[in-house]
Amino acid sequence: MASTVEGDRKEPVNEQVVANMYAAMRSELNQIYSKITELEMEVSEHSLVINAIQPLDPSRRCYRMIGGVLVERTIKEVLPAVQRNKEGLEEVIARLNETLEKKKKEIAEFEAKYKIRIRKADADVKDDSGRKEGTAQGVLVGPASGSE
C-alpha cells in the first residue's frame, strides 16, 4: 500500500498498521458497549429506589450516599434528586448510543476500505480438522460405515 495523505489522516503503510488500527477501533467500540451497560444498570438501580420510596411519606427520613458520605435527608428532598440523576443518566446513554452508531459506521467503512474479513468461521473450520472425537457435538465427520 502506498503512503498517501488524505485530508488530515495518513494511509496505513502495511497490513500490521491496518490490523492495529482496526483492533483499536474494535476495542473502543467494546468500551462504549460496556459503558452503556454499566450506565443502564445504574438507571435500573435508580428506578428501583424511586419505586421503593415514592409511595412512602415525604417527611420520612432516608439516607443517601453523596460522594462517599452517607447523609440523612427526607424523602421529599431525595426523590427529586434521584429522578434528576436518572434522567441525566438516560441522556448520557442516548449520547453514547449515538456515538456507538457513528463508531459502527466508521468500522464498517474501514472494513470495506481495507477489505477486512473476520476469520473466526475459517479458523473454526481449520481447527475442527485437528480435534479428537467428542468435540464435534453431533456432527458426523467422515463417511458413514460401509457395512450396512
TrEMBL record:
Decide whether keyword Transcription is in the record: no
Q: Name one GO molecular function term.
A: unfolded protein binding
Spell out the coiled coil positions from the record. 79-113
Q: Which domain of life is it from?
A: Eukaryota
Q: Which UniProt keywords apply?
A: Chaperone, Coiled coil
Chain residue ranges for the region called Disordered: 123-148
- Pfam families recorded: Prefoldin_2
Q: Which family does it belong to?
A: Belongs to the prefoldin subunit beta family.
Protein name per UniProt: Putative prefoldin subunit 2
Q: Which InterPro entries match?
A: PFD2, PFD_beta-like, Prefoldin
Record's Gene Ontology CC terms?
A: prefoldin complex
Biased composition regions of type Basic and acidic residues, renumbered to the chain:
123-134
Report if keyword Coiled coil is assigned. Answer: yes
Biological process according to GO: protein folding; response to cold
Stored SUPFAM superfamilies: Prefoldin (SSF46579)
Q: Which organism is this entry from?
A: Senna tora
